[in-house]
């Protein structure tokens, strides 16, 4: 009887135990596959975002190069129909060919005169006619703009991009310098090497769905993602992560829109390849569980714990570390089972992701170095330009001073010119040096009302420069102290006052007011025309400068804080750029609102100490 009862209960007990082990193992398997998918999606998103940033930087770098080359003396000299112009054209042609060959991705370089006729080229077969006066890039550049085209089929059907810049001579545009760029270079360097699995790949789409880059070159500039339901969804979302079916295969894909060109960079991999090792482990777990179902409960528990649960838990912990960004973590198993095969596959994938991430980092460093060199070249050109004209005036004036026949009164007047130009030169040079190497901050508690009052008195004492502009102060009486660098904020206030006076050459009114509110200045859009909504309830002091001058045109409103941007005949274009940088250093905010013909309002916001 007892034996019968023992047999009656042992069987169901073992089956229940085995079922519990099976359920626990499958739960662990499901959890681990979720972690794998999460890690893969995270890495794919990071790579797509990195490629998008790299593409934007690459195009921006090419814009800077085209604009810089358009300013070369040999390019400017080649425009006129003269003996010097013909000689310059003859010298410019091999130079353009050399630039094309050195960079490797320019299909052709062109120089057009103001009528659109191509007067110098790099010597390649052109995708345009000999006269480009009706081309979009020529029309835009001839109006003074830097032009970047949409992607189109160029020579031999390759994806091509056109960048063009105006060629200036003094204050006038004399021609257009243009280039056609082969995007297959960027694809071969940065897109094609991306491999996340055996057949996973990266690709680039135009905003209308046309394939720009793809490992299958037969699809480039021919296949259209908008013809497929999943492609339409990608084009609608523009950025994100999703699962989708393509040509009968289920993929996990991440994609990111590059906002300058509207191109969509995508990374995908087949789901079956990603989860193949996990699926093999799942099948083995089920098989082992069925086999050991006839063993005693303790043996089953020991086997499952030692050979299934522990390795899967190790997989899970390692996957969590990889998903968190630790690509140095690997799985180490001593057994020779399928777990070891899965561990090797996972380690290989993690190593591939690490190599891709390291290559992206090195590419970032190269692009950053190129951008720093371009900025240095721009700064050097500005310094030369700002020093050249004053030196010419000083030289001419000095020649009059040494002329013994010149009248004493004339010499005295000329001496004043020299002093004035030296002062102007010192101001321009200081602006450029301040931009190139910002001074360290010296923070102290400051009464902004007192600082603004002192600046108003200082301005009004300069009667020669006052130009009939009247400044009115309207200061709140309950302002707390603000911690800032007093001298730099004085400089910023004077830059805005000077900017207002130049906007009112015939006279006008400037109102400077202060108030206390709860808006967080770090939530403002510094370069925008409206300013973002307040974020946190951090107290801040607000300073407003409101004039009734000429105002700022809407198309220039987002550019006024850019370095070297100016609409004036004279000036470095660094005044408001310096203000913007100083406000950034103080973790403060600045925004601007303007209506042409009515006036402009600058708004500074400082966090309270």
Summarize this structure as a short list of keywords or feature phrases.
609 residues; alpha+beta; Beta-Lactamase; Helix Hairpins; Heat Shock Protein 90; six-stranded antiparallel beta sheet; five-stranded antiparallel beta sheet; 14 helices; globular
Number of domain units: 3
Structural class label: alpha+beta
Low-confidence parts = 1-9, 520-536
Going by CATH, the homologous superfamily of the largest domain would be PAS domain
The CATH architecture of the largest domain can be named as: 2-Layer Sandwich
Q: Main beta sheet, described?
A: 6 strands, antiparallel
What characteristic shape results from the CA principal axes? globular
Overall mean pLDDT score?
78
How large is the count of helical segments?
14
How many beta strands in the DSSP annotation?
18
Termini separation (Å)? Answer: 87 Å
| Share of residues in strands | 15-25%
According to CATH, what is the class of the largest domain? Alpha Beta
What is the CATH topology assignment of the largest domain? Answer: Beta-Lactamase
Describe the structure.
The protein has 609 residues and is an alpha+beta fold. The protein has helices at residues 2-69, 73-77, 83-103, 136-141, 184-191, 229-237, 271-291, 297-323, 338-401, 408-436, 448-461, 463-466, 486-502, 575-585; strands spanning 106-113, 118-121, 147-148, 152-153, 159-169, 172-182, 201-205, 211-213, 240-246, 249-258, 263-270, 443-446, 469-474, 482-485, 508-517, 540-547, 589-595, 599-607. It folds into 3 domains: 36-285, 2-Layer Sandwich (Beta-Lactamase), CATH 3.30.450.20; 381-434, Helix Hairpins (Orthogonal Bundle); 439-607, 2-Layer Sandwich (Heat Shock Protein 90). A hairpin with a 2-residue loop joins strand 5 and strand 6. Helix 1 (2-69) packs antiparallel against helix 7. The protein is globular.
């Amino acid at each position: 009887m007892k034996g019968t009862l023992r047999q009656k209960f042992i069987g169901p007990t073992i089956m229940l135990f085995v079922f519990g082990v099976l359920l626990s193992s499958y739960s662990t398997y499901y959890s681990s596959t979720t972690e794998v998918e999460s890690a893969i999606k995270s890495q794919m998103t990071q790579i797509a975002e990195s490629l998008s940033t790299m593409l934007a930087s690459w195009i921006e770098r090419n814009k800077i190069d085209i604009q810089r080359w358009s300013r070369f003396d040999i390019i400017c000299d080649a425009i006129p129909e003269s003996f010097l112009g013909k000689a310059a054209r003859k010298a410019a042609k091999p130079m353009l060919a050399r630039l094309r060959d050195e960079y490797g991705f320019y299909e052709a370089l062109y120089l057009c005169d103001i009528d659109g006729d191509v007067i110098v080229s790099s010597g390649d077969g052109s995708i345009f006619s000999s006269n480009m006066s009706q081309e979009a890039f020529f029309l835009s550049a001839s109006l003074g703009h830097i032009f970047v085209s949409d992607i189109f089929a160029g020579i031999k059907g390759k994806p091509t991009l056109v960048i063009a810049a105006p060629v200036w001579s003094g204050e006038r545009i004399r021609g257009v310098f243009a280039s056609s760029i082969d995007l297959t270079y960027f694809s071969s360097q940065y897109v094609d090497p991306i491999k996340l699995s055996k057949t996973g790949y990266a690709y680039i789409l135009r905003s209308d769905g046309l394939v720009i880059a793809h490992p299958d070159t037969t699809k480039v500039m021919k296949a259209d993602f908008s013809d497929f339901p999943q492609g339409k969804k990608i084009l609608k979302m523009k950025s994100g992560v999703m699962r989708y079916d393509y040509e009968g295969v289920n993929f996990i894909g991440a994609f990111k829109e590059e906002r300058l060109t509207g191109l969509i960079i995508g990374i995908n991999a087949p789901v079956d390849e990603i989860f193949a090792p996990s699926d093999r482990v799942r099948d083995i777990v089920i098989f082992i569980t069925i086999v050991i179902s006839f063993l005693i409960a303790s043996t089953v528990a020991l086997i499952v714990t030692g050979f299934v649960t522990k390795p899967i838990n190790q997989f899970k912990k390692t996957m969590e570390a990889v998903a968190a960004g630790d690509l140095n973590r690997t799985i180490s198993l001593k057994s020779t089972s399928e777990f070891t095969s899965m561990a090797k596959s996972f380690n290989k994938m993690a190593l591939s992701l690490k190599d891709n991430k390291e290559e992206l980092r090195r590419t970032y460093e190269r692009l950053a170095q190129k951008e720093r060199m371009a900025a240095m070249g721009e700064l050097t050109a500005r310094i030369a330009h700002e020093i050249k004209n004053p030196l010419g005036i000083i030289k001419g004036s000095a020649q009059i001073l040494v002329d013994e026949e010149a009248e004493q009164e004339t010499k005295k007047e000329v001496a004043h010119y020299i002093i004035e130009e030296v002062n102007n030169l010192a101001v321009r040079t200081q602006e450029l040096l301040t931009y190139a190497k910002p001074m360290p901050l010296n923070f102290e508690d400051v009464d902004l009302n007192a600082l603004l009052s002192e600046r108003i008195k200082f301005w009004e004492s300069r009667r020669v420069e006052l130009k009939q502009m009247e400044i009115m102060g309207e200061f709140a009486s309950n302002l707390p102290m603000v911690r800032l660098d007093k001298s730099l904020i004085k400089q910023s206030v004077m830059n805005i006052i000077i900017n207002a006076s130049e906007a009112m050459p015939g006279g006008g009114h400037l109102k400077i007011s202060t108030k206390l509110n709860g808006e967080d200045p770090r939530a403002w859009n510094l370069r925008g025309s409206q300013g973002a909504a307040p974020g946190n309830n951090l107290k801040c002091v607000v300073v407003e400068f409101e004039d009734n001058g000429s105002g700022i045109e809407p198309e220039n409103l987002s550019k006024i804080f850019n370095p070297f941007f100016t609409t004036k005949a004279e000036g470095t274009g660094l005044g408001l750029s310096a203000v913007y940088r100083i406000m950034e250093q103080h973790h403060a905010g600045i925004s601007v609102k303007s209506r042409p013909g009515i006036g402009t309002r600058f708004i500074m916001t400082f966090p309270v100490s």
